[in-house]
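tool_call: predict_structure(chain=1)
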Amino acid sequence: LAFYHTKRNWLTRHVALEYASLFDVILPVLAKCGHPLPLGGTSNHFRTSVLRAAGGWDPHNVTEDADLGIRLHRLGYRVDVLDSTTYEEAAYSLSNWLRQRSRWLKGWMQTWLVHMRNPIDTWREMGPAGFAVFQVLMGGIVVSALVHPFFLAAVIYGLVAGTLWPNTQNIGEVFLFACQAVVLGMGYGVMMLIAWRACGVRQLTGFKRSIPAMPIYWLLITAAGWYAVWQLLTAPYYWEKTRHGPK
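tool_result:
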């Protein structure tokens, strides 16, 4: 999946970077390795018998495509990525984007909760590697979105207060700080490198200049994530509509 009006504004540029990172880099690697992957909502192709064997779409899951991708893997089927592009419209206003993204994150929460009702069965059907990928992909993305601003605030406070680097000779505290620094550096660095690679694959000319601002976009995802948590508790099956048709 890709977008046909990627340069409309700042938001569409970052959505384009995110989509290119997912559909042009991450998902092809997962498919090549035979790992579980969430389906995109557009241009999926199934054998009818397989779709029926998997139980079809879950009408209660607001990202039924992602859930079906995980279910197919648990049943022993393989999902692959075709060398073909379907163009769609990116949400170009913040309110529209927030509704769409909160629905996606709520659906990923639903998917994780459903498949973790019996984690032993999920582990057995996915295998250790597939189970780990499922946790990192479906659970990790949601958790990271929710905790990112608190982690970032702690780092900023440490810089301002001068307490970021441990003023101690205690090897345990120094090691803990080093681990935290590595997590921060790798978390930001890996995603930015993936976006850099995606720009080349998708030929997003000029988009590499937007990569340093990705952490700001991630803070918007946090807002959508907490809104998704609230909706999961109050209206789990409500489908947030996305307005289409930019003028």
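agent: The first strand starts at residue 2 and ends at 3. Proceeding to next step.
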